């Protein structure tokens, strides 16, 4: 297989070790992604079994997301000090133990504690996952590797609801968490055996920056959750805390001897524009899934299973197109590929915004598939630009920013839908907003085409010299 071929002069791991390391990353990522989508479907069943109200049971999902979001930048920075290998093993171990604890929980409070620890473990693995791909694979295959990463994440989102339905059809909800234990132990074995040993950075850890980062990201997520539930006073308070924490975080990063996130990385325009495009595109993706869920079920009267089926083309298209886009990004200008993908995504979102009660299932399916094709063309090349635009030494920071922008964008998109519903606006109107933010992402992507083109020419010249 091309991804595991070794050529003279390759950096990264040799082919056999590369395969084992990828297996560890794939299983670890799948657990974190599938876990979120599985639990969402099971919330009513868990709430009934534990005697919890619907409003309290929502925190089974929320606490995982808040903790995970709060620690993404922290763990990316910490990985430089303790190495990515150790952080990944620690995070994976935490996730597995917390999954066992969640499976054994017999009241809501106990379950919430273990869900928080699951979020902690997931943050450790997801924050550095993309940077580990850069250590594992040779530079010539970086786009292909990130295409594989996109395939795994999309596959997890697609499989989660189905897997949850299958398990709940013959077993109780604790098995949703227990499933992570054998998978996690296998992943731990492969990770300990094959993940590369990267050198630790000397120096101190930016504790103040970490605290500001946690406050900033956690309050942002809680503010977006408040907007989504029309709790505007609460959302305003969390937003104020987010702004204050963000100001303090930026000020600290300018003064710290070893900043958690060196702000100098944003002086590289290829990186900054790729980050901007990513965040704006994820707003469109995040709001689309929530908006269409309400539209299909509340206005078209479809069941949750029928709604999930109408969403399936999106992740399936990413699974097919993403790896191909990643391979192409190693050979052609990745910014051009990303821009073409965003154009497809805009057309798909506009087409979905025009859906009404008379639209057939086939009419919805092709629109959703078009969005998936666009996102699959966009994400791996864009991630390659983020990762390749900075030195290898900054890979952990890039990985943390990449994961954070995905979380922030999706959370903001969900909040937009919640605000529209609270104001009595048509949920379809939010899709026009998603198309608009994706258009802004396209502008950012097109702005770096020439920069990425020059980098591609330099990479080819360097390859010929080697």
Automatic annotation (TrEMBL):
Stored PROSITE patterns: MFS
UniProt keyword Cytoplasm present: no
Domain Major facilitator superfamily (MFS) profile: 21-453
Signal peptide range in chain numbering: none
Keyword Lipid metabolism: no
Alphabetical list of InterPro entries matching this protein: MFS, MFS_dom, MFS_trans_sf
Record keywords: Membrane, Transmembrane, Transmembrane helix
Source taxon at top rank: Bacteria
Record localization: Membrane
Spans through the membrane: 20-47, 59-78, 87-105, 111-133, 145-167, 173-192, 204-224, 230-250, 271-296, 308-329, 336-355, 361-378, 412-433, 439-457
Membrane topology field: Multi-pass membrane protein
Annotated protein name in UniProt: MFS transporter
């Amino acid at each position: 297989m091309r991804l595991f071929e070794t050529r003279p002069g390759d950096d990264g791991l040799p082919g056999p070790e590369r395969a084992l390391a990828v297996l560890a990353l794939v299983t670890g990522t799948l657990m974190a992604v599938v876990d979120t989508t599985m639990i969402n479907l099971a919330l009513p069943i868990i709430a009934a079994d534990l005697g919890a109200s619907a409003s309290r049971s929502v925190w089974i999902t929320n606490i995982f997301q808040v903790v995970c979001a709060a620690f993404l930048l922290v763990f990316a920075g910490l990985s430089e000090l303790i190495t990515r290998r150790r952080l990944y093993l620690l995070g994976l171990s935490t996730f597995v133990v917390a999954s066992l604890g969640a499976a054994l929980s017999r009241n809501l409070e106990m379950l919430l504690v273990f869900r928080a620890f699951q979020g902690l473990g997931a943050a450790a693995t997801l924050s550095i996952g993309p940077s580990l791909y850069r250590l594992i694979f040779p530079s010539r295959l970086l786009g292909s590797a990130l295409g594989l990463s996109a395939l795994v994440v999309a596959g997890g989102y697609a499989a989660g609801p189905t897997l949850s339905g299958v398990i709940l059809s013959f077993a109780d909800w604790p098995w949703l968490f227990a499933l992570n234990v054998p998978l996690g132990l296998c992943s731990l074995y492969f990770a300990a055996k094959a993940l590369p040993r990267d050198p630790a950075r000397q120096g101190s850890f930016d504790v103040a920056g970490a605290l500001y980062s946690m406050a900033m990201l956690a309050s942002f997520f809680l503010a977006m959750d408040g907007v989504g539930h029309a709790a505007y006073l609460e959302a305003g308070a969390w937003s104020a805390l987010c702004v204050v924490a963000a100001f303090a975080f930026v000020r600290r990063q300018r003064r710290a001897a070893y900043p958690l996130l060196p702000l100098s990385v944003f002086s590289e325009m290829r990186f900054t524009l790729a980050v901007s495009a990513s965040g704006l595109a994820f707003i469109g993706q995040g709001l689309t899934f929530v908006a269409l869920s309400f539209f299909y079920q509340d206005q078209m009267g479809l069941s949750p299973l029928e709604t999930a089926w109408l969403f399936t083309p999106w992740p399936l298209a990413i699974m097919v197109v993403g790896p191909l886009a990643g391979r192409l990004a190693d050979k052609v200008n990745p910014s051009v590929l990303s821009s073409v993908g965003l154009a497809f995504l805009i057309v798909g979102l506009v087409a979905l915004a025009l859906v009404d009660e008379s639209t057939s299932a086939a009419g919805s399916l092709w629109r959703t598939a078009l969005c998936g094709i666009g996102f699959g063309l966009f994400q791996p090349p864009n991630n390659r630009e983020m990762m390749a635009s900075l030195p290898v030494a900054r890979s952990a920071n890039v990985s943390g920013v990449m994961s954070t922008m995905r979380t922030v964008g999706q959370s903001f998109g969900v909040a937009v839908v919640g605000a529209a519903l609270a104001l009595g606006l048509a949920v379809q109107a939010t899709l026009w907003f998603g198309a608009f933010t994706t258009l802004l992402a396209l502008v950012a992507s097109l702005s770096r085409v020439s920069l990425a083109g020059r980098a591609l020419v330099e990479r080819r010249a360097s390859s010929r010299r080697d």
